[in-house]
């Protein structure tokens, strides 16, 4: 079943200011992800697109004579569950191998038809079960006087040609109870063969042929004995020690830690057991092959083949290489999941985030200690609820079809509240609003108006409920979220500190919004004004250390030189009109001077011994209060005397600082955990008019971020 996403389910903000991150880069394969998965052959699926096998079974349908097929992987919706709650891997889930095929009046064909395979089973070829003749020949070595044809036939099953049913997937914590040789569910007919096995018989019976019931002195053969024994553990350990030094096997950054890790365990393999990959290894390979569900590129992970060692032909070197390849792939995935695959510092000096990759030793020790290695690796993804919501949205977008798209609103005159129009029913359908019972279906009623206003707020439009050309275009997909947009925003969450703080400030620049978040819940929200495309607000995290009441505005050097000096030279009364003071800094200390005593044409603005400041007051550019988190960008949160700009839908007017619409209410929410200061005390100090600083005892994290897609938690 497809899931329709009403437009109000998520928010999408057009890139309104100069930091055009979305257009700067897109993860590999993102542009191809809009095609429906079911229409793309698995072999041709883009790297960032889920394969069809993730949504539906891909094998041939099972015939009545064949046994029940292995379960297919859960649909994309299941894969998109919260990253904070790890999803169990279908490859790691136990599978019931009991034969459910009912007896048929006619014998089964010589080869079972291809069932709809499960994920791991499809890549794990079954080993042939021994034929009755082969078993009889082995037993005959000790009892030649007893012909095979005279032995009683079991009522439950027969042996025949090798079956094609693959073995059940192995779990991440234990090997299957039945050897990998496979479980016979249907058998090829022979001249003496009884009916095929019935559903009420245990499949293990097929591993004990009728010969086992004969009183014989020879040891009974088992299915596993038909596979050549693989290298012993000592040989594999020696091969790992040698392979660690092979060129190109391990990157220089991880080589020392990986070598130490294996040396401390006497070079015992991490993923090999019994001469083949264990269940945990197979589950991890499956998950990394589908790393695109987390917004990552599966092609980044060099994985060993799933069937290595299954036929007993792999030597110690093959198994050692497979073990190390999977270790390196797991390390790469852990780093990508936590810190991303793109270096944000390449976007410019204003992008001062520094995502940290996990320590190699930490990852390796964790893998060795945990039973659920898939869940452990998934845990390196961002723990933030919005990342989990975007992961789910990504799966739904990839699973979308044309039929899921809501109808478009036709062109027409501007639609205002209270009007009647043929487009109103389409508008309600687009927004998911129920048809009213108290007015006609064409009437633009209050409930629909409120839904439109909500959408306008999310889309960054004027919030008036009027449907003009801009609102209609946005409703019809002008701000449609694409897979590439979701991928970019998932990557950005990897740049945010994993621990944002139980009580923190979150500013989302393209949304023009500030939130105070306490224990994961937004407790306060207000509008903000951010930097222009020329003077952009930087992206970084810091801590608020103090509150400055009735602040001075010390004019930044860049503003004084580039913006004020040309005006000062033309207008002698510039300082008086702007309420600015001139501070002379060339005499060993700061001294306020009369600006009219200076011939400004004689001074080089780049090295002049003056700075400018604006005293506290109603016209001060910082308003009545500022919230300080000292940083190299010299930006902070502050009040402003220019109140009318907050009513604009696009609010990028500052020189980089963040102007707060409701500073006193913000102070109350911000300082709710402080004992000595709060909004009321700040309001009292403001009325006194004097400048003063109030230290924040418990520094409060503040995060300036840039997310263009986020899911509406409501």
Task: Please explain how this structure is put together.
By secondary structure, the chain is α+β, with helices and mostly antiparallel strands. It has helices at residues 21-24, 76-79, 119-122, 132-140, 233-243, 252-264, 279-289, 316-339, 360-369, 373-378, 385-398, 424-431, 446-459, 469-478, 483-493, 557-570, 574-578, 663-670, 679-688, and strands spanning 10-12, 272-273, 276-277, 503-508, 513-518, 521-531, 540-549, 553-554, 581-584, 591-593, 610-614, 625-628, 637-638, 652-654, 658-660, 692-705, 709-711. Helix 5 packs across helix 8 (316-339). The protein is globular. The two termini are 23 Å apart. The model is unreliable at 1-224 (pLDDT under 50).
Report a brief summary of the structure:
27% of the residues lie in helices and 12% in strands. It is built from 19 helices and 17 strands.
Pick out its properties.
single chain, 714 residues, 27% helix, 12% strand, disordered N terminus
Strand content: 5-15%
Percent range for helical residues? 25-40%
- Poorly predicted regions are 1-224
> Order of strands across the biggest sheet?
4-5-6-15-13-12-7-16
Characterize the largest beta sheet: strand count, sense, and whether it forms a barrel. Answer: 8 strands, mixed, barrel
Helix/strand-derived category reads alpha+beta
Q: What is the overall pLDDT average?
A: 75
Q: Classify the oligomer.
A: single chain
- So how many helices? 19
Radius of gyration: 35 Å
Global morphology: globular
Spatial gap, N to C terminus: 23 Å
